Amino acid sequence: MAVTAPLPRPGDAVESIDTPALVVDLDAMQANLQAMAAFARERGVRLRPHAKMHKSAAIARLQMAAGAVGVCVQKTSEAEALAAAGIDDIYISNEVIDPAKLDRVAALARRVRLAIAVDSSEGVERLAAAVARAGSAIAVFVEVDVGHGRCGAPAAAAGQLAQHVVSHAPPEGGLVFAGLQAYHGAAQHVRGAAEREAAAQHAAALARAAQASIGAAGIACPLVTGAGTGTFAFDAASGVWGELQAGSYLFMDRDYADNAPAPGAPRFAHALFVKSRVMSRGVAHAVVDAGHKSHAIDAGLPRVWLRPLDYANGGDEHGILRPRAGALAGALPALGDTVWLVPGHCDPTVNLHDRYVAVRGGLERGVVEAVWPIEARGCVS
Ligand SMILES: Cc1ncc(COP(=O)(O)O)c(C=O)c1O
């Protein structure tokens, strides 16, 4: 086992946290958590936040205590990790096709309330066979492609697939038809609110067509589940979605903050930071100890928090800071200074770390309240 710095302990000053570190501002996170819970309550929709984002049982528990019906994950191993840590209502909002992995899904369905998505007849058959081998039962959502062009059957095929699921219903089979999975990932980051609303409305039209296809097959569609941080307000207003799967609202990365907010939707604050420290200084630049092994850069570079500085990629372990256009050279931090970074994309950033350091009372003068393991870190299969 590698030798590492001692873990922070509750009560430690934020300043003492070793760098780089993944830090959660608990005041901001809990405001975000409550705002989304209140939104779902007021709109009369269920909330099942996506735990692919935080990968943490402690955070899932906080979300469920605030009214979430359970959590979503994308991967079998994520579901197993969170179940092992005590989360008992999990939806794998994704397709699983490998029989060996489906055996694990079916086994897990004996221990927790489990649901999964399918988008093919072959997928239904394989799932039904695994569940029969395990003697378990699982809720099944038929995924339809509502605009992303990723997974999902065409809307017109939803009825046929639902029929296939129903043909494996209890007591003979173990598949319980639960409704539709309808998630338009590409719509989430459309910057303009009007353009994003148009994409969400297009997704709603396709989801309605899928509902009609299921109705025409003589099957009741209990629920449409989907939505992300970019479109949840439009999706809830559409009357189509009965369950929201947003995940990133909780931490609010730089990429989402670059979206124009939807009118009337709750606003979310940045709650996830990488704490970094200046390790080298030049005349016109400073170097911090957090590179892209500390934060993901697929959605762009981090924003430097509350300082007029731009972050440039310095490689795996370094970030290069320069004064923003118009800022004075004096804006550069000194050797040893702490610099807070807002990651470009929270999900893959979290996946780089073993733990969160959760702090209360702000990033400047706060104290450590908890250290949470990221149980599903590395669970990508
Ligand atoms: C199926 C599904 N649902 C919900 C989400 C949550 O989206 P976000 O984290 O953007 O709120 C995602 C994210 O990729 C997803 O893939």
Low-confidence stretches: none
Q: Average pLDDT value?
A: 97
Listed once per kind, the bound small molecules are: pyridoxal-5'-phosphate
Q: Portion of residues in helices? A: 25-40%
How far the N terminus sits from the C terminus, by CA atoms, comes to 24 Å
Number of helices: 10
The biggest sheet amounts to: 9 strands, mixed
Secondary-structure-based class equals alpha/beta
**SS elements, strand count:** 17
H and E string: EHEHEHEHEHEHEHEHEHEEEEEEHEE
Q: What is the radius of gyration?
A: 22 Å
What would the principal axes of the Cα set say about the shape? globular
Strand content: 15-25%
Give a quick rundown of the structure.
The chain is α/β, with parallel strands linked by helices. It is about 30% helix and about 20% strand. Strands 1, 10, 11, 12, 13, 14, 15, 16 and 17 form a nine-stranded mixed β-sheet that branches. The protein has an eight-stranded parallel β-sheet with strand order 2-9-8-7-6-5-4-3.
